[in-house]
Structure to design on (998 residues):
């Protein structure tokens, strides 16, 4: 049996992560594959552009039998302008396309089936290139209909290109459908394109689908879309009449919203890392009955020795004030806020030291800006950028860990710090507040193991640092609580056990039609009926 | 976080669309302008020479000159149209520096090719003195160079320089040919005409150099446009060959054809009629070009401006309608002016032609070819519009139809008697006009589709 036709137990559908990019999701993927050597895995990897210099960041275990890659934003330079009319076979294609687009997709199973039919058609008719499709008069008339129906007052040029950018990756994905490995279970690590790929592949192979979200994909895309500059914000003349978002941005958001809903609808189980994200998933269309919370976990016992090393060091050199940061030096971690906080801490405690550890190659310009800012703030003697480090060497040096991210899921670095007895001060992102608040409801109850401040709140962050660094008793109690929280709630065996149970359960129910989700079930009440005006989440999500 | 580092912010803003506006309009006018002037000049010259040269020498002279013009037009047709496109692209890319080098390259190419063709033709296939052959081949080089230079005239702002160049060139040519013919016979006539064209070419080059001062890049960079737009090149070839094919057929096959010398033939009945009627395109063409250069070009810019500056589809379509109205107005004027001119010429054909010593048969052919040229003007205008809207395939199609129809139908009529002469040309021009008009209509109907269709991402 060739690897392509061989059916593996689980096909992981991954978008822009493992094995090429390191980070939380990739750590988790690697953990899962390594934890179940008795299961066979395949990986369907979706990337942006093919980069021949990219190398695997992980040593892929032997139970991964097959890796397939598809690149969605590869720009082909083919200038072929064949004006060949698509055969008669394309009439039903356009009928379905109209049905899907013009009647406002809501992301229910019916829409997914329509989209799947379209994608199958694209996969079968390989002679039709995207360019040929896009330049076809029938496509043009569909675009016009959509425009006239939904955004007749927008720039047509922008609408046209928005549509092109939306459709092209889906087309590329459809072309790659034939290469999705066969598996008994499709497991996607996000919604979006990977979620769509998993949903379609699961339907094709009559297999169940599992979705694990570390962040909330749609919310991250909304952030991107709001930041993108070229989609023009119009209606500036009459601000009181202005909608918060231009119709074109709403179109982008609506597109990802629909993809997300399709994915939530098709998934037999939706896994969330923590409660707040589960709420967001419900908001964006996931069935509450299918959501399970499985937090990330680590081997806390490995950290115990680092905790001891730290205690020994603190006893030997009392009164040190070392604050650490461990993570990639990138804008999403908001290192600049960290530096402003450091300035305020050093104003109060001139002998404080801040160690910024982690790889710095991802956003070199941002690193440059941070170094410059550090100089401008006069932090040369207090702040050190020390690059990648060994955890076992780094964590014992710290009195305190700080995390200033603007967006996180359930960060491994927080659990590792706590397990190593280092209390954490963090912005209120992802699961951080949940983790650091302790577990008063546990028996016996566990107190807090860190402090939380608002995103970008340098005053509050600095005050928290100063408070902990000047109150040894508090610091010590948080250190003890942290080790307890990590060991009890964020041990690897909890997460891996839960996933094993899920895998076994889903693979045993086999074909999806036997599960409780009827394939052709119509829109559940939770779906918003109008995708192009998808609600924009407010900050309380 | 999972997810492709979403590319939205990296997607560049959409490219802008532009119509290749410049120079096309004038291309038609310019190729018609020298044509008309040269026909008039040659008629005057022929009339002058009648008093000094024997009949067979006059026939040798006029047939040679006609062949020179025909070969030069067919040879430079593809070159002219590709150079026109190249300069238009340079202007829209704001790389005016690259225009003058292409002038040099175009002239060099035209000179080499026409010298080869002219040399071979006049030395191998025409039985005339070596001196006459040298002058005739030289004339072909200069005529070709002037046709190439005319491409650049539309880019110039100082029209009076051009007018002066043509007046001086043809004036010199006519007078020198006449005077030299008095002393040296037909060789002198050819040498005089050659001198006139030399003067014209030098003046034109001075005019062009005066305005296109800067130059950068290779002289033969434009050659890549031949590969990029093979359809344009073919279109130029077909159109010019189509214009001449009926004349070649009549020279060779008509009952009244005259073998002048070697491969040089003439068909006096047909030739004079059709040259006279070609003169009639002047008023219609002038009116149409005026409309295109003023009102239409403004609407054309408006249309693409609306597209690029974020107009809604409704605004884009409204701009398109204004464009169509302007075009319709242009065709209306063309129809009226050309219609009246043609009607007057047909009615007063007898009186007019009496002046030119025209035979009864020629008057009949003249009336028919007047209709043909009327249709030809309309066809030329439609072709210009197709170039504007970048429908190169459509332009090629109708030029090809014109060529094939004119070839086949003229061949069919030429073997009949004189009563049929000219009908082939009329029907071919009508057919080409019909197809071109249908293409223009469909292009305008779907203009916004074709505008956006150019190239995604």
């Amino acid at each position: 049996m060739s690897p392509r036709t061989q059916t593996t137990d689980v096909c992981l559908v991954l978008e822009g992560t493992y094995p090429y990019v390191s980070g939380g999701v990739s750590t988790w993927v690697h953990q899962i594959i390594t934890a179940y050597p008795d299961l066979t895995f395949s990986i369907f990897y979706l990337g942006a552009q093919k980069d021949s210099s990219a190398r695997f960041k992980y040593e892929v275990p032997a139970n991964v039998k097959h890796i397939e890659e598809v690149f969605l934003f590869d720009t082909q330079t083919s200038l072929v302008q064949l004006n060949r009319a698509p055969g008669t076979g394309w009439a039903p294609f356009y009928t379905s396309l109209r049905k899907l687009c013009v009647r406002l997709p809501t992301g229910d199973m019916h829409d997914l089936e329509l989209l799947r039919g379209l994608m199958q058609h694209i996969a079968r008719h390989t002679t039709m290139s995207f360019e040929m499709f896009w330049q076809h008069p029938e496509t043009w008339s569909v675009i016009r209909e959509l425009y006239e129906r939904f955004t007749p007052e927008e720039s047509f040029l922008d609408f046209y290109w928005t549509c092109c950018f939306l459709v092209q990756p889906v087309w590329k994905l459809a072309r790659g459908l034939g290469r999705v490995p066969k598996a008994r279970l499709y497991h996607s690590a996000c919604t979006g394109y990977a979620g769509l790929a998993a949903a379609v592949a699961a339907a094709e192979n009559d297999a169940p689908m599992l979705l694990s979200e570390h962040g909330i994909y749609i919310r991250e895309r909304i952030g991107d879309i709001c930041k993108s500059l070229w989609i023009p914000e119009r209606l500036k003349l009459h601000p009181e009449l202005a909608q918060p978002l231009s119709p074109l941005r709403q179109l982008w958001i609506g597109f990802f919203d629909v993809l997300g809903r399709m994915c939530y609808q098709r998934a037999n189980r939706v896994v969330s890392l923590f409660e707040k994200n589960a709420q967001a998933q419900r908001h964006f269309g996931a069935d509450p009955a299918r959501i399970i919370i499985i937090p990330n976990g680590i081997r806390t016992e490995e950290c115990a020795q680092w905790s001891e090393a730290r205690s020994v060091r603190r006893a030997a050199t009392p009164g040190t004030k070392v604050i650490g940061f461990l993570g990639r030096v990138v804008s999403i971690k908001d290192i600049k806020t960290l530096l402003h906080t450091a300035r305020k801490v050093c104003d109060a405690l001139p002998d404080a030291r801040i160690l910024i550890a982690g790889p710095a190659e991802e956003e070199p310009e941002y690193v440059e800006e941070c170094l410059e800012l550090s100089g401008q703030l006069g932090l040369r003697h207090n702040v050190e950028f020390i690059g990648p480090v060994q955890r076992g060497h780094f964590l014992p040096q710290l009195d305190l860990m700080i995390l200033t991210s603007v967006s996180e899921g359930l960060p491994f670095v927080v659990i590792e710090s706590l397990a190593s007895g280092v209390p954490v001060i963090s912005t209120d992102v992802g699961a951080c507040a949940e983790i650091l608040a302790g577990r008063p409801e546990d028996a016996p109850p566990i107190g807090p193991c860190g402090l939380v401040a608002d995103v970008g709140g340098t005053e509050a962050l600095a005050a928290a640092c100063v408070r902990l660094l000047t109150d040894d008793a508090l610091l010590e109690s948080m250190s003890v609580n942290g080790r307890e929280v990590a060991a009890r709630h964020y041990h690897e065996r909890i997460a891996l056990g839960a996933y094993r149970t899920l895998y076994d359960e889903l693979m045993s129910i086999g074909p999806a039609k036997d599960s409780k989700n009827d394939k052709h079930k119509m829109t559940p009440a939770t779906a918003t009926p109008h995708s192009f005006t998808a609600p924009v989440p407010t900050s309380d999500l | 976080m999972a997810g492709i580092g979403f590319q939205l912010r990296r997607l560049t803003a959409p490219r802008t669309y532009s119509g290749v506006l410049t120079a096309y309009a004038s291309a038609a006018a310019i190729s018609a302008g020298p044509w008309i002037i040269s026909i008039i000049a040659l008629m005057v010259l022929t009339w002058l020479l009648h008093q000094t040269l024997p009949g067979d020498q006059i026939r040798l002279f006029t047939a040679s000159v006609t062949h020179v013009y025909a070969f030069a037009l067919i040879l430079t047709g593809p070159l002219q149209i590709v150079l026109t496109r190249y300069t238009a692209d340079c202007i829209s890319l704001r790389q005016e520096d690259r225009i003058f080098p292409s002038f040099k390259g175009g002239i060099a190419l035209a000179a080499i090719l026409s010298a080869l063709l002219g040399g071979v033709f006049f030395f191998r296939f025409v039985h005339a003195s070596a001196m006459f052959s040298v002058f005739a081949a030289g004339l072909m080089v200069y005529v070709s160079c002037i046709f190439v230079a005319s491409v650049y005239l539309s880019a110039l702002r100082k029209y009076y320089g051009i007018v002066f160049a043509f007046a001086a060139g043809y004036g010199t040519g006519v007078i020198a040919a006449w005077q030299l013919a008095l002393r040296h016979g037909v060789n002198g006539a050819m040498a005089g005409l050659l001198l006139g064209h030399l003067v014209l070419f030098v003046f034109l080059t001075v005019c062009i150099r005066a305005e296109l001062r800067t130059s950068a890049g290779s002289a033969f960079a434009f050659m890549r446009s031949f590969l990029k737009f093979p359809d344009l090149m073919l279109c130029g070839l077909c159109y010019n060959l189509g214009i001449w094919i009926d004349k070649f057929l009549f020279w060779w096959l008509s009952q009244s054809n005259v073998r002048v010398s070697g491969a040089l033939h003439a068909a006096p009945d047909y030739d004079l009629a059709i040259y006279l009627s070609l003169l009639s395109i002047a008023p219609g063409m002038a009116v149409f070009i005026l409309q295109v250069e003023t009102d239409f070009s403004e609407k054309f810019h408006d249309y693409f401006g609306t597209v690029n500056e974020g107009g809604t589809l409704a605004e884009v379509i409204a701009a398109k309608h204004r464009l169509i109205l302007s075009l319709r107005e242009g065709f209306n004027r063309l129809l009226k002016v050309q219609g009246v001119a043609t009607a007057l010429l047909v009615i007063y054909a007898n009186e007019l032609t009496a002046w030119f010593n025209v035979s009864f048969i020629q008057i009949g052919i003249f009336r028919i070819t007047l209709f043909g040229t009327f249709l030809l003007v309309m066809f030329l205008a439609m072709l210009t519009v197709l170039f504007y809207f970048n429908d190169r395939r459509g332009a090629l199609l109708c030029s090809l139809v014109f060529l094939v129809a004119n070839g086949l139908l003229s061949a069919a009529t030429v073997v009949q008697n004189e009563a049929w002469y000219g009908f082939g040309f009329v029907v071919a021009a009508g057919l080409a006009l019909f197809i071109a008009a249908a293409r223009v209509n469909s292009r305008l109907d779907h203009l916004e589709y074709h505008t956006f269709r150019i190239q995604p991402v």
